[in-house]
Amino acid sequence: MTKNHRLNSISAGTEAIFHVIIGLFSIGCIIPFIFVIIISFSAESSIREIGYSFLPKAWSAATYTYAVQRLPQIWRSYFNSVLITVVGTVLSTLMCALYSYALFRPDFKFRGFFNFLSFFTMIFGGGLVPTYVICTQILGLRENYAALIVPLLVSPFNIIIMRTFFKSSVPLELVEAATIDGSGEYSTFFRVVLPIAKPGLATIALLNSLAYWNDWYLSLLYIRQNKILQPLQALLMELQNNVEYLNRMSASLGSSAIQEAMRAPTQTLRMVLVVLIVVPIACAYPFFQRYIVAGLTIGSVKG
Amino acid sequence: MDNKLERLSADRAPNWFQRNKKTLALLTMVAPGAIWLLLLRYLPIGGIVLAFKNYKIFPRNPTFWSNLAHSKWVGLKNFEFIFKTDQALVAIRNTLLYNIVFIILGCIIPVAFAIMMNEFTKKFVAKAYQTMMFFPYFLSWVVVSYFLNAFIDAQYGMIPAAQAAAGKEVVSWYTTTRPWPAIIIFANLWKNVGYSTVLYLAAITGIDANQYEAAAIDGATKWQQIRYVTLPHLRTMISILLILNVGKIFAADFGLFYNVPMQNGALFSVTQVIDTYIYRVFITTGNISQSSAAGLLQNVIGFVCIMLANAVVKRIDPESSLF
Amino acid sequence: MKKIIALALALIMVFALVGTQAYADKSDAVTLKIWFHGSNVAPDSSKKVLDELNVYLQDKIGAKLEVIWGTWGDFDQAVVTALAGGDDVDMVFTCNWSADEYNRYARDGYWVKLDDMLPEYAPDLLALIPEGIWECAKTNGYDGMGIYAIPALKDTATQNCWDVNGTLLAALGYDVDEVCAKGLDYYSDEFEEMLQKAKDYMAAQGENDFYPLCVEPMVLERLVNVSSIVTGDLGGGNVLSYYYDKDHPANDIGSVIVNKFGTPEFEAYAKRTYELAQKGFISPSIQNVGTSNDYRTACQNSGAYLISTQSYAYGCEIDFSNARGIDVRMVPASAPYMDATSGQGAMMAISAVSKNPEKALEFLNLLNTDPYVMTTLNYGLEGFTFEKNEDGTISFIEEGRSTYSPWRNGMGNVRILPPTADEGLTYWDDFAAYYNSAEALPYGAFIFDSSVVETEGAAIANIFAEYAFNLCSGATDPEAVLPEFLQKLEAAGMSDFVAAANDQLAAFLG
Description:
The structure holds 3 protein chains of 3 kinds. Helix content of chain A is about 75%, strand content about 0%. Chain A is an all-alpha fold. Chain A has a domain at about 70-265: MetI-like fold (Orthogonal Bundle), CATH 1.10.3720. By secondary structure, chain B is an all-alpha fold. A two-stranded antiparallel ribbon of chain B has the order 1-2. Chain C is of the alpha+beta class. Chain C folds into 2 domains: about 25-155 and about 345-440, D-Maltodextrin-Binding Protein, domain 2 (3-Layer(aba) Sandwich); about 160-340, D-Maltodextrin-Binding Protein, domain 2. In chain C, a hairpin with a 2-residue loop joins strand 5 and strand 6. Chain C is globular, with a radius of gyration of 25 Å. Classes of the chains: A mainly alpha, B mainly alpha, C alpha+beta. Chains in contact: A-B, A-C, B-C. Chains A and B meet through helix 1, helix 2, helix 5, helix 6 and helix 7 of A and helix 3, helix 6, helix 7, helix 8 and helix 10 of B.
């Protein structure tokens, strides 16, 4: 046992070096976020006097108050975001897994065709306006939740990645064996293949959920009148863009616009909005991670 | 139930459905995705002709497709501006050079990180690292630009302040080009390494533990295990991501090049890329035909590169190719 | 798993159905859809106001109004896609600084030409708007020269002013009234001395990071050189200048349109600005494109400046003084003038897609001439967003107003609104008097159609982005950079660009 263990792991010295490298990089990744939190609680006057700093002269939560006041809809938008993210992630991950599983099967007759069908759209598209026209005028994707979910359902990139996960983790013999045992295609897929591909599936789900959670552009395009459906990110982006726009234009717009610009705490607002959007999704991250890193324990600690 | 059916059908000649049962089942699996692709990606694809037209409204029937049909063909005129000036050539050069660096480092570092993290004996530490690495993904480039600004701002930045305190000459970061290639490359890696590392980690965790055990029993050291078990296993993922990145060689991350240098003109010689160049033209002319021409050109070049890269990979290892 | 798929698919269907149902129109009255810019209106408040307004509108013109409350943040991106895609909108906000730029979109056929319709469907409006402003709205559109949108009767003139911190100036020992009455000369020694005194004064207070000259660089250049924006110049910035007489803008001083950066005036300006920046009067944060606007606004709002720039809006010094808690003075750098740029500051166009252009024009006629419609749409409902005072002014009810505040100037004729208590009873009369006093520039309502030199424009835009800001903000030494800049502009076809503008100007003036 002990011998085996030693054989199967790197020396303590090497591991220490690894820790230093990865550790430094990870800290480098987290510091900007800490910075964002600090700035979000800084007083505007402090930023004007000493700039963006880790040690502001004065603290203040005024910008949070401002944001919540300016956005009476914020809680509704949180709800919208959660709904869109959950429904969207489930649907898109499922569609991705099904599609790429068929592509992974070497005995699928139309494999090449469907592979190319998806790959081609990764490179070529009709562009923004034609897509917008199809979505709004033919598919009825406007002013409803579907408009915020459907356009992100399929990602050719994710299909390729998922197919690679299948390739590298699911032995074909297993599928064949299941078929010989009389299991139907769907039952093989759900009972045999998916459990093995869990880390891959969790990764794709993570990517999808981030895409849904971070998206604001769909709302900008498709939600104009029924703004009660706006997801959080769209609401926040709009507020930030409003403020920046007014700052940029304040020399040439009339006085009513100038008054509005003067009320906005520009410099901290940007950071407050980041905190409001990132914290919830960061809390959901460990859920996905459980599956992604779960394999680690099986993979290497075994001795 | 199934067995009974099979016995029944074995008596007679199997009909078409039974013969193609597997294919039909697999077809139903691709169906949702394929329908989506047809509706949302292939229906609008006719819009590509926008790149060869001078888009105008056709007042008698002002719907998009009739406008498009009635707009004048202008041939390749919409593409001219991309090659017209020295600025454009600088942008193309920068895009290609940065992308080559990104492709190489963006492959080596995440693979190395994933392998290292796989070796940590304390798994919760690996988890903590992994979580932290994902944070850059949440921060927009605009926010990152202000973070960087906190260090190098001429008025408040920590680095100029330290330089001044040490009696050294203070560098004006936003007008000096020298440090910027390094800053851009570092920022790009910072943002993307975590993401790729997660992909590689997930691929590693898919490795059957028995393979390591078998290798260990055969007397393979850890390094040999990495070389002969882990890396071959990652080969497919590495080459797929490489091919996909090569396809983006003519496009740049707009947010990085536009926001991180804070749009300062003095840095253009090292920060102007194709996407920022096109954007600046677009806000000037507002010509959607020109911007779709530029997008189309980027796509065509990307397509050619992907096909070439794929062909090369296919020759070396058919299993790892894209298609 | 299968259950989840079924459930999810069912959910999608429901969403899609609910969505289409909610927006299917059921009544017979014509529904007009209008798209505003710069609004801050909550969905509930919008419904409340429109429900009441629509009763009136149905009675008056037999139409109902549906509003898309575009915001500062989303208008530009959304409107471009929607218009190119042929969305069914009847009326759209346009002007010469938004993404749906009035002249360009008129040229490309997006707007309905109104000249023939105006006498029949909008006679009141036709009479109301002064001839000079109609002139500004005339552009060379898809169906020839004519009016393609209704200009808003709002702040229709431009005046560049120095924004002076009177409180600080007084603390430096100056007689504020005297200094302001005399005006400021950018090139004078007194100007520099004033800045130096302010810097020393603040340093004595322990504030070493004080930069007295807190400006918007591109505005400063126009202000100092007394040049106007040429309507139709590059969308991303101005490369053309047209110099006018400082005191009497209508005087013909023999100007033509010139390359902004190629004049001795510009060289002198760039040198002076660089010199002032070197002496520590301009903050490096102002010189950094990414932080410039934020920093300037923050300094202005907290009164941490001595001299700034402002494109004057009537009465803004009072708003500023109140908001900043200092004595803000506006010192004119030149007299107010009128040109196409100010005349086209806010307009309402009728989209080519509209099925009821006549009805839409009838509505615009009403909006601009009926105080009830304008007040309701702009200020909301009595008892909800505002209250009437006895003297005829109004006061806002903060609770309602905070959920219903469209951009006032973006709608149309603001001069028929009731004045607020803060503004005072005579506000709109004074407002009109000020703007009506503005003289028209010698080149009148000239509009440059730069689409004929689009390729040159595209090349120039990137060179402009590379050099112009740094030169205007004093970040780079013009001795070293200006010749290189001019040479690159030349190579990109700047001469052709300027020549095209002057050819058109000559044709315009006949």
